[in-house]
Amino acid sequence: MEFETLVQSRRSVRGFKTEPVPRTVIEAIIESAKRAPSSMNTQPWHVHVLTGSPLEEVRRRNMEEMVGGAKVKRDIISHGEYQGVHRSRQVDIAKKLFGAMGIARDDKPMRQDWVLRGFRQFDAPVSLVLTYDRVLDPGAVCHFDLGALCYGIVLAAWDRGLGSVINGQGIMRSDIVREVAKIPEDEVIMTCVALGYPDDGFAANAVRSDREANDDFVRFIGFAD
């Protein structure tokens, strides 16, 4: 698939089929994605691929802890709640998703169920937990590298007929993920990518988020008119 078409067509998938994803397909995805740019070729990333009973344990315990009122325990520093324009964009996509799913504003049980889906990594059959070497903290540069790898993964997956959603809710309790996946202490858990074959009958999968016009965030300096 042409790159521009691939980027334009890709979307976040929040409803997956239960069909398992072959390990060979995941290996091919990572083989492509690891060509992502990396600062001075440091390649600070690690990928822990979970499926089956280990993934079920992670999502069950993550959901139970968060529903039970446990505090978020992520390895990376969070910005906290969004405010201003960032909050507005967050609300806009939530409205689109709830509208597609027929979830009314005052339907608290269904809205809560949607939140729980995030904690369960949207019930995807595979989760790729992305980490980086702790020795590189504070890690703005390696965070950038990991983001490049992450985007490479979602594009390579889409090119092979797989959907994905980059899902911070799935690692809200990073201590549980570390324990179950046996992730070494010298790696920082940054995020995860829920992966699987899209369920085309799941209404939210058709939702596409808006993007600002280029004029709102791009400046050209030194170009002739």
Please characterize this protein's 3D structure.
The protein is of the alpha+beta class and about 220 residues long. Helix content is about 45%, strand content about 15%. Strands 1-2-4-3 form a 4-stranded antiparallel β-sheet, sandwiched between helices. The protein is globular, with a radius of gyration of 18 Å. The mean pLDDT is about 90. Keywords: Oxidoreductase. Belongs to the nitroreductase family.
**What's the SSE pattern?**
HHEHHHEHEHEH
Give me the Rg, rounded: 18 Å
Number of strands: 4
Please state the oligomeric state of the protein chains shown: single chain
Q: List low-pLDDT spans.
A: none
What structural category do the secondary elements indicate? alpha+beta
Number of helices: 8
Biggest sheet descriptor = 4 strands, antiparallel
End-to-end Cα distance, whole Å, is: 34 Å
Helix proportion of residues, in percent? Answer: 40-55%
Strand order of the largest sheet: 1-2-4-3
CATH homologous superfamily, by name?
A: NADH Oxidase
